[in-house]
């Protein structure tokens, strides 16, 4: 086994560089990598037979811990199954380390099984791709492997974080013989210390002067991980300087009486005179993608004269609203802390305790309150009829304080954004909005539950659930996972968005009628299963369902897609009347 010693040593290097979690999908070619991590006492190794699910479980763990998670898979088509999780991690800026076993390259195009072009397979969707040598006898090869792994782990974490690929060609023998040593030898770690430079003084003066020239300043927050310190600072700026802070549920800005959180409803069907009262002169954006089309359309149609985007990374120009004038390289928290301090000091020097410029904030807040009331009216249903939107409202209102919420793509994340959360609930919200696909939403929530002791609630639609149910396979399902499955037996979003709903081919070419329930999936996975069909049943089941327990739980909420459609169309009609 000494010929594979550099591969065995990789496990020790993962540990020394701070990696604690590894996801393994079984395979023969990857056996040396698998045995190396499994036999390392400091690494926590989990097995997922489905590589696609494994990638998303790793993503969920990395979201919670903020540390890279290693993923090991065998060669060939198995590697391609990691691609959906890789692209999500890339655009969501989540650190993953992909260790893909490979055959030596001279066997390519020689009719050898599971042999494909693996180096660079993930293209532009990884931060970098490394291809290790297949022969380790020369000292330079061992040096190259050690140096590359050090670099790859650092690179996955450096802002912007993201996935890094290490392709590992392996020759036989893969398995140690009885009594043969299979332990890591000495390895060399290379530490990297990074400095965070601040903006030059003249740049700060320029920004403060630009701020002072504008009365209508607005901060818009895209998708961000939970950050209580940032929320507190944004609230202080809003309150002290009369600045609207606009966000969505994936911004982790819950309703606190200051923030503007009903943007999808508020910004729908605006007439020009109302829109102009909401148009900022200076727009400051932070975070990643925005969820709703209404938000993006508003800021594109009514652009600010000046638009700052605050981001610690300046590798690409993010001009989503087509109005960008200034990019500032800084973490949002550090930027707003200094901005608040400088503005507060400037106001003190001027002897001005209150500049009275709250009209713009009040205009946005009044519009936000009207939007919240409209949503409330839209949620009222006759008798005991239950819709997906109503169920979402019930679930969100009853989430345990301090828990974690994962929102699947398509309609669940949109319904949740319409409903919103209260800041008093202290809910951490996550969603795969890097690429916004339905693949992997369940697996990501499983990974999150594996990485935290908090209760993790997943709100997911039926198509996304059944598409990803291998996320419940292989590894034990963590007992702190609670799954709310909105099952309307269709791809419900296609009845709601403009276009497919008006086509005679809607069913079955756009929708996905299936007739499935999750009962057998839950039984196979050892997950407690319940089903409800009315609002009364849901209300009665929620308190016990959300209690801690020794098993994961799944509550299937059965609704009628036509009733869901009627409710949403009535909501849209109300929006048009309000306009």
From TrEMBL:
InterPro entries, per database record: MenaQ_synth_MenD, MenD_middle, THDP-binding, Thiamin_PyroP_enz_TPP-bd_dom
Instruction: Please report the stretch or stretches of sequence annotated as the Menaquinone biosynthesis protein MenD middle domain.
Output: 205-337
Q: What is its EC number?
A: 2.2.1.9
Gene Ontology BP term (one): menaquinone biosynthetic process
Q: List the molecular function annotations (GO) for this entry.
A: 2-succinyl-5-enolpyruvyl-6-hydroxy-3-cyclohexene-1-carboxylic-acid synthase activity; magnesium ion binding; manganese ion binding; thiamine pyrophosphate binding
Question: Which pathway does the protein contribute to?
Answer: Quinol/quinone metabolism; 1,4-dihydroxy-2-naphthoate biosynthesis; 1,4-dihydroxy-2-naphthoate from chorismate: step 2/7; Quinol/quinone metabolism; menaquinone biosynthesis
| Cofactor list | thiamine diphosphate; Mg(2+); Mn(2+)
Against CDD domains, the record matches this protein to:
TPP_PYR_MenD, TPP_SHCHC_synthase
Thiamine pyrophosphate enzyme N-terminal TPP-binding domain: residues covered: 10-115
Catalysed transformations (reactions): isochorismate + 2-oxoglutarate + H(+) = 5-enolpyruvoyl-6-hydroxy-2-succinyl-cyclohex-3-ene-1-carboxylate + CO2
**Cofactor-binding details, from the entry:** Binds 1 thiamine pyrophosphate per subunit.
The alphabetized UniProt keywords are: Magnesium, Manganese, Menaquinone biosynthesis, Metal-binding, Thiamine pyrophosphate, Transferase
Keyword Cell division in record = no
Matches recorded under PANTHER family = 2-SUCCINYL-5-ENOLPYRUVYL-6-HYDROXY-3-CYCLOHEXENE-1-CARBOXYLATE SYNTHASE (PTHR42916), PROTEIN PHYLLO, CHLOROPLASTIC (PTHR42916:SF1)
| HAMAP family assigned to the protein according to its UniProt record, in alphabetical order | MenD (MF_01659)
Family in the record? Belongs to the TPP enzyme family. MenD subfamily.
Q: What does this protein do?
A: Catalyzes the thiamine diphosphate-dependent decarboxylation of 2-oxoglutarate and the subsequent addition of the resulting succinic semialdehyde-thiamine pyrophosphate anion to isochorismate to yield 2-succinyl-5-enolpyruvyl-6-hydroxy-3-cyclohexene-1-carboxylate (SEPHCHC).
Q: How does it assemble?
A: Homodimer.
This protein's name: 2-succinyl-5-enolpyruvyl-6-hydroxy-3-cyclohexene-1-carboxylate synthase
């Amino acid at each position: 086994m000494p010929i594979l010693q550099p591969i065995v040593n990789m496990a020790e290097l993962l540990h020394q560089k701070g990696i604690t979690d590894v996801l393994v999908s079984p395979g023969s070619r990857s056996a040396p990598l698998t045995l190396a991590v499994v036999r390392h006492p400091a690494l926590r190794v989990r097995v997922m037979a489905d590589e696609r699910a494994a990638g998303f479980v790793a993503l969920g763990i990395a979201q919670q811990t903020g540390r890279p998670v290693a993923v090991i898979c065998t060669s060939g088509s198995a590697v391609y199954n990691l691609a959906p999780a890789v692209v999500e991690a890339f655009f969501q800026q989540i650190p993953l380390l992909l260790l893909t076993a490979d055959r030596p390259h001279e066997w390519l195009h020689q009719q050898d099984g599971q042999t494909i072009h693996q180096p660079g397979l993930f293209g532009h969707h990884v931060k970098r791709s490394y291809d290790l040598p297949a022969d380790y006898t020369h000292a330079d090869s061992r040096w190259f492997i050690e140096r590359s792994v050090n670099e790859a782990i650092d690179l996955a974490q450096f802002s912007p974080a993201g996935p890094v690929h290490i392709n590992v060609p392996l020759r036989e023998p893969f398995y140690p013989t009885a009594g043969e040593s299979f332990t890591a030898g000495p390895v060399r770690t290379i530490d990297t210390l990074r400095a965070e430079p601040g903006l030059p003084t003249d740049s700060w003066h320029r920004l403060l002067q630009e701020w002072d020239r504008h009365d209508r300043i607005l901060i818009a927050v895209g998708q961000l991980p939970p950050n209580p310190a940032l929320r507190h600072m944004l609230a202080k700026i809003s309150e002290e300087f009369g600045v609207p802070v606009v966000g969505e549920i994936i911004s982790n800005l819950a309703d606190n009486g200051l923030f503007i959180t009903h943007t999808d409803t508020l910004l729908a069907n605006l007439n020009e005179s109302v829109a102009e009262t909401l148009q900022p002169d200076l727009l400051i954006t932070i975070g990643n993608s925005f969820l709703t089309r209404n938000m993006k359309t508003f800021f594109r149609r009514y652009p600010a004269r000046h638009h700052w985007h605050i981001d610690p990374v300046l590798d690409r120009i993010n001009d989503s609203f087509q109005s960008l004038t200034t990019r500032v390289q800084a973490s949002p928290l550090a930027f707003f802390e200094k901005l608040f301090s400088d503005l507060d000091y400037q106001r003190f020097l001027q002897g001005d305790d209150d500049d009275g410029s709250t009209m713009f904030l009040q205009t946005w807040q009044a519009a936000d309150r009207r939007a919240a009331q409209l949503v409330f009216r839209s949620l009222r249903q006759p008798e005991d009829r239950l819709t997906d939107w109503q169920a979402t409202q019930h679930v969100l209102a009853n989430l345990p304080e301090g828990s974690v919420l994962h929102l699947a793509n398509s309609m669940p994340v949109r319904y949740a954004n319409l409903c919103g959360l209260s800041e008093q609930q202290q809910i951490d919200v996550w969603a795969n909005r890097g690429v916004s696909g339905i693949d992997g939403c369940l697996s990501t929530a499983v990974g999150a539950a594996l990485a935290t002791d908090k209760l993790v609630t997943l709100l997911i639609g039926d198509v996304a659930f059944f598409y990803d149910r291998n996320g419940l396979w292989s590894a034990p399902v963590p007992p702190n996972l609670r799954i709310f499955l909105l099952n309307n037996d269709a791809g419900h979003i296609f009845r709601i968005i403009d276009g497919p709903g008006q086509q005679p081919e809607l069913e079955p070419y756009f929708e996905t009628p299936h007739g499935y329930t999750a009962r057998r999936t839950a039984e196979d996975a050892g997950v407690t299963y319940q089903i409800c069909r009315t609002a009364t049943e849901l209300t009665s089941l929620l308190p016990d369902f959300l209690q801690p327990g020794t098993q994961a739980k799944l509550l299937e909420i059965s609704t009628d897609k036509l009733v869901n459609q009627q409710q949403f169309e009535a909501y849209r009609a109300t929006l048009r009347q309000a306009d």
